[in-house]
Amino acid sequence: xxxxxxxxxxxxxxxxxxxxxxxxxxxxxxxxxxxxxxxxxxxxxxxxxxxxxxxxxxxxxxxxxxxxxxxxxxxxxxxxxxxxxxxxxxxxxxxxxxxxxxxxxxxxxxxxxxxxxxxxxxxxxxxxxxxxxxxxxxxxxxxxxxxxxxxxxxxxxxxxxxxxxxxxxxxxxxxxxxxxxxxxxxxxxxxxxxxxxxxxxxxxxxxxxxxxxxxxxxxxxxxxxxxxxxxxxxxxxxxxxxxxxxxxxxxxxxxxxxxxxxxxxxxxxxxxxxxxxxxxxxxxxxxxxxxxxxxxxxxxxxxxxxxxxxxxxxxxxxxxxxxxxxxxxxxxxxxxxxxxxxxxx
Length: 345
Description:
- The protein is of the alpha/beta class.
- It contains 9 helices and 18 strands.
- A hairpin with a 5-residue loop joins strand 3 (about 60-65) and strand 4 (about 70).
- The two termini are about 20 Å apart.
- The model has no long low-confidence stretch (mean pLDDT about 95).
């Protein structure tokens, strides 16, 4: 716990802490929350997120018995009304810190009653949902959600994903809470490294984050964990020296961060054509940043960017790779992350 507290402090971060709802035990949830808060400190906790994808509790196996029989966390009849009762009962015993949720894994329950759910939860200070444009299970080759590069670069994976979430941002804001997509990445339900670890994922991430911002989403947490098909970085100590690898998607996130300094606002622009995407931001200091994304796998494009009434000098930074399928050789501004370091930095 000390390492988590130290990390949060050094990053000046506030954490959303996941609390077990599937176990259906108020005592367990309260004990878990108390231990986390004691170890990290109240100042570093943004909210307690109660549950993780509860809309899947009645469908996915929680564990198996010794004879191999699958056991789900809830019966198949578990629905939004059942969740609302569980959330209210378990949440009432948690420390008086804002709650986050409902962290749905799909939009079916959200579309059927997010507003009603929020109306029953006055302590909910952060509305959370999970989204992935592609899925490696329950999809067949040729599907618009099958995890290959073409669907990842197509409009439904970025603009379509963001547009599907816009109504929920309005609902959350109507209840005085921000909407955060606190689990987002390229492919859900298993690994598809040829897609998730390609340069295409960098282009997708860069464009999708802009689309989400334009749709009123207040924040995004990009999902990663050791061994994931979409793992953003891998760090290890070998023979007393730190080694690291950084995935292409991380470079796309880095470019988005550079393009949107704190306090930036999106600028209205005429639409670009075809597979060329165009975004622009104005920072609090007045500086304008223009972002061009070429998703066209077959052609290069020539673009002329003019700022009316300005003769200011511009600088150019490129995010590029040997190919859209490349998993290495990605550079931003002509630089890439090294593979070794003596200090871990």
